[in-house]
Design a protein that fits this description.
This protein is α/β, with parallel strands linked by helices. About 55% of the residues lie in helices and about 10% in strands. The N and C termini lie far apart (about 70 Å). The protein has 13 helices and five strands.
Length: about 260
């Protein structure tokens, strides 16, 4: 004789989950109950899996929202970076940076090299990893950052400190070095670096070597020294030399 199936009315349970803002668990409830019945899963295991589903959904949403707010370019990850093409980059150093320890310690990563060697890809990829680790991240191209600094130049210090380029755990600055700064702009950049020193991590990509920064920073050697002193005090400097990815793609197109 077959045991009659017990009819479960889960609408009330689903409603309570929604009231508790457990929408991911509510959405998965039907399927998970069905699997629990078929596999004869115990109550505590079912509850644990339901809570795990809710936490996973919340984490996925957190990462998605923070990536959107960070303004990071999409699609550039550590997984799709071609380390084989760029042997000058030590994979072990990138793996160490991917742990996020340097962000917790408010340190600086400086990626130097000519255009096309993968600096921006690594910056974006490590920024994505930082978001996944739970850090607040903000991305700027250098010209965008300077525009924001000029716009906010007259704000009082309390409001300046609330800006994302000041308050984020990690500030990403891409493509520094293409246009030299005037004296006012160099001073604004110094204010940014000086405030974040010891408070927040930064990663900068640049096509300029350190010896060329004086020229970049309005030709002011004293100011350039003050900025570099703070940036390089606790810095990870990666000099990337190699072929351009974009030129490689062009070469492949010609061969096709």
């Amino acid at each position: 004789m077959n045991t009659p199936r017990i009819r479960l009315d889960i609408d009330a349970t689903r409603e309570k989950l929604c009231q508790l803002a457990c929408g991911h668990a509510a959405d998965a409830l039907d399927d998970m109950i069905g699997k629990a019945v078929r596999d004869e899963i115990s109550a505590h295991v079912f509850l644990d899996r339901l809570l795990t589903t809710e936490l996973a959904g919340r984490e996925e949403r957190r990462v998605r929202v923070m990536l959107k707010n960070s303004k990071l370019p999409s699609g550039q990850t550590l997984e799709n970076f071609d380390f084989a093409f760029q042997p000058a980059i030590e994979r072990s150093r990138i793996d160490t940076l991917a742990t996020g320890t340097w962000i917790r310690n408010a340190e600086v990563v400086l990626l130097q090299g000519p255009p096309g060697v993968g600096k921006s890809h690594l910056l974006a990829a490590l920024g994505i990893r930082a978001v996944q680790l739970g850090f607040s991240v903000q991305y700027y191209r250098f010209d965008e950052l300077m525009a924001a600094l000029r716009h906010d130049a007259q704000l009082p210090p309390p409001r300046i400190k609330m800006r994302k380029y000041m308050s984020s755990a990690l500030l990403l600055i891409d493509e520094m070095g293409y246009d030299p700064l005037n004296r006012e702009e160099a001073s604004l950049f110094f204010r940014l670096v000086s405030y974040r020193y010891g408070r927040g991590a930064m990663m900068i990509t640049t096509n300029k070597s350190i010896r060329d920064w004086t020229e970049l920073l309005a030709g002011d050697e004293v100011l350039a020294t003050a900025i570099l002193d703070r940036l390089l005090h606790r810095a990870h400097v990666l000099n990337i030399k190699g072929r351009s990815y974009r030129l490689r793609d062009l070469e492949d197109a010609f061969k096709a």
